[in-house]
Write a structure and sequence with these properties.
Helix content: 25-40%
Structural class: alpha/beta
Strand order of the largest sheet: 8-9-10-11-13-12
Number of helices: 15
Strand content: 15-25%
Order of helices and strands: EHEHHEHEHEHHHHHHEEHHEEEHEEEH
Shape: globular
Length: 381
């Protein structure tokens, strides 16, 4: 097992929610970190039926545990009524719970007890470069870093099964929507929009549904942790800027599979999109694992000047260029941004061999930049 960066040390004092998309390794992590914890797996059919019929059974089974004991409930969203029992046991028995799941949708929409702030929130992301010795960048760019996919001999088949399982378990089983064919088409169209500014009207036309429906589809992807929106940076803007969000699937392997674009060829637009996506995954995971309040955004003016990633309040600005030689013309966005926000530290991540400095803008090879990120040298959480 690779050593994961997330440690969940807060469990000594608090209860935790551990979220993460399917197959990011939540169950494996919890069993490795807490081998002596009481463990309830709601994917176990017999246990699921028993707890669904009688949620108070859990309280009865845990009453004799000493205060401070750790209890893990995996896939807790399958029996949301258990959270009332968890709430009582936290307050009255002093037990510490880790509540694990791959979807917040069912919990939020059922009006379930979410423990009123009594559990801290954590997210497990796919593998990041700092967790993998001899990190294979090309493999990650093509097939993503969801653990089973990154490690598989046949990652394409794994990705196919992943999408099929997602549709069956998250969409069909939960009766989330009626028009399954439109949603399946939407997954592909959303992949075309991956790393791009979202245009609901255009996507709706491609899918044959309304713009309102497309917004609901994107909401489903976010709530089931399959994707996320990147907001535009608009704080104290002197120029006219775009305000619509960008969309990213949570792992670069997903859009690659949906668009059948592997193996990626360097110096193509598809390779550039994957390059940007992988870097955004890494930075997003870094900020999440360090519980940073600094959010990620992007910046684009109405005239087309753009910076791929802004961290915090214009503290860091990053452009991702998959070329082996970054040209002067590719620095226009960063130059425009730093004129408006002179406090920003500016970087370009590229496939160049050696780092260099151009007009205060640092240009770094991708592997070196990833090392800087995880060494806290790019942003302090």
């Amino acid at each position: 097992m690779f050593s994961r960066i997330i440690t969940l040390d807060e469990i000594q004092d608090d209860s935790l929610f551990l979220c993460g998309a399917r197959q990011t390794g939540k169950s494996t992590l919890l069993k490795a970190l807490f081998p002596k914890a009481r463990y309830y797996d709601m994917l176990n059919a017999n246990l699921f039926r028993a707890m669904s019929r009688n949620p108070s059974l859990m309280r009865e089974q845990l009453m004799l545990l000493p205060a401070g004991s750790i209890v893990i409930i995996d896939e807790v969203q399958k029996v949301p009524e258990l959270l009332d029992e968890v709430h009582w046991l936290i307050q009255n028995k002093g037990l510490h719970f880790i509540l694990c799941g791959s979807s917040a949708r069912k919990l939020r929409r059922s009006g379930t007890n979410l423990l009123g702030g009594r559990a801290l929130s954590n997210t497990l992301h796919p593998f990041v470069s700092a967790e993998i010795p001899d990190f294979d960048i090309e493999r990650a760019l093509n097939y993503g870093t969801i653990p089973p996919h990154y490690l598989a001999k046949n990652p394409v088949r794994r990705l196919q099964a992943y999408i099929d399982d997602y549709i069956q378990q998250e969409i069909v089983a939960e009766s989330v929507l009626r028009n399954l064919s439109a949603f399946t088409r939407f997954l592909e169209v959303a992949a075309l929009s991956n790393t791009e500014i979202v245009n609901y009207t255009n996507i709706a036309a491609e899918c044959g549904v309304s713009a309102k429906t497309v917004k609901e589809y994107f909401s489903i992807l976010e709530e089931t942790l399959l994707g996320f929106m990147l907001p535009a940076y608009t704080h104290n803007a002197k120029r006219r800027v775009v305000q619509s969000p960008k969309f990213y699937y949570f792992d670069v392997g997903i859009p690659n599979y949906l668009l059948d674009r592997t193996p990626l060829k360097p110096d193509t637009a598809e390779y550039g999109h994957a390059f940007e996506h992988l870097m955004m995954q890494e930075i997003r995971a870094f900020l999440s694992y360090h519980h940073s309040r600094k959010r990620m955004s992007y910046w684009r003016t109405s005239t087309g000047l753009e910076v791929d990633c802004i961290i915090g309040d214009a503290e860091v600005a990053i452009e991702f260029k998959s070329s082996t030689e970054v040209r002067n013309s590719q620095l226009k966005g960063l130059r425009a941004f730093v004129k408006e926000y002179p406090q920003a530290k500016c970087y370009v991540v590229s496939r160049e061999i050696y780092p260099r400095l151009v007009d205060g803008i640092e240009i770094w090879p991708i592997r070196d930049f990833l090392t800087k990120v995880w060494n806290h040298e790019v942003v302090i959480p």
